[in-house]
Specification:
Two copies of one chain form a homodimer.
Chain A lengths: L1 H12 L4 H7 L12 H13 L3 E6 L7 E6 L1 H12 L10 H7 L6 H29 L8 H32 L4 H4 L7
Antiparallel strand pairs in A: 1-2
Helix pairs in contact in A: 1-4, 2-3, 6-7
The first copy, chain A, binds a DNA duplex (28 and 28 nucleotides) through helix 2 and helix 3.
Chain lengths: 191, 191
DNA sequence: TGGTCCATGTAAAACGTTACATGATTCC
DNA sequence: GGAATCATGTAACGTTTTACATGGACCA
């Protein structure tokens, strides 16, 4: 249901081709909604049928023509209506937590390795977010009303990643103090 | 792919029927992996075919028989192998952030209402988590090695909800200081 | 007598993933 | 000369969601 909304919100920010959207879903919008190019093309076709978007074909020399999509008034109404309907909490699906929940099945070193790996991934993403913050939102006081909203989604990402880092540290140090680990931590990860 | 893993991890904790699993996926395991009863029944059939689980039918008087599922040695190996393969970050899909990203389309009061609503939902869940913490993990020093892992998943939930609350507060107070809100905040939510 | 709980499932539709396909251009 | 980028898509398959279906037990 909500891929359509994510696409419309992206087109609201700026008209794009399917190809451009796919790239934007790989950063920015993609930080809170993920979608592949195949999904995007399929959904664009549907949105056009529903008159939520229109196309403008851009002829290009030496490369495939571009279909540039725009949100219509009808699309905006559709979005506006949706925004007024309360959403429930988004369900989580997290592999790492499934692993952890049954972590006693394997040597603690296996789980520790995975935790350290995830800590690094979250750290990298946090740095990425902070770079965006510095580059695009250096002066919070003077943000346009459009920018405020996008800034707040970024702040959510930063908060989220900081929380992960904090938790990873807690989990790592807790697992390290497990008595069985005095030996196990030195074993190769496959054990 | 990973619904099977989530079910196996749940069965590892304790053998259950499909019905019981569905209930467990509504709390505990469900806090980090969500699944409906239809998915669970279908996946159980597959897992049985793959010999990752076995059934034991319990005859019951006056109510439908129960199929109690157990994880097999093979199922444990399957889980163990999976735990050693690094996972990537779980992709997010969050309606609220999509709404926020395009929030400038509607009156700020609409978004503020949604933020306050979400703040309440997160607050409720945090309280729920903290109740579990107090009841089942009162003494962190003396946890069994099984319990440590489940405690850490709970701690993740607590961390996560606290992060959301903090961010909601930040977002609400940022939106409240928008100049347009001096008037807009008093309008009915449908505006 | 009406609703919720127990306990299992089927069927169709929507959504998501993986693989395949094309073809020129630009970069190394 | 090979890889990546631009730009679009199709096809097959797998997963998830939504709705439907059954039927007794128990509670208010």
């Amino acid at each position: 249901m909500a891929l359509s909304h994510a696409i419309l919100v992206a087109l609201l920010e700026s008209p794009s081709s399917g190809y451009d959207l796919a790239k934007r879903f790989d950063g920015s919008v993609g930080f809170f909604w993920d979608a592949s190019h195949q999904q995007i093309y399929r959904e664009l076709a549907k949105l056009e049928q529903a008159h939520h978007i229109t196309v403008e074909t851009i002829e290009q020399a030496g490369r495939p023509n571009k279909k540039n999509y725009f949100i219509t008034e009808r699309g905006k109404v559709f979005l506006t209506d949706w925004m007024a309907v309360p959403s429930s909490l988004s369900p989580l699906k997290d592999d790492l937590l499934v692993k952890l929940f049954g972590g006693y099945l394997v040597n603690p070193a296996v789980i520790l390795k995975e935790l350290r790996h995830h800590r690094k991934l979250h750290q990298t993403r946090l740095v990425e977010y902070q770079a965006i913050e510095e580059r695009f939102f250096p002066d919070v006081e003077t943000l346009s009303s459009t920018a405020v909203y996008q800034y707040l989604t970024l702040r959510n990402g930063i908060q989220f990643e900081q929380g992960w880092l904090k938790w990873c540290d807690e989990a790592i140090s807790t697992l390290q103090t497990l008595p069985s680990l005095a030996i196990a931590d030195d074993l190769p990860p496959s054990c």
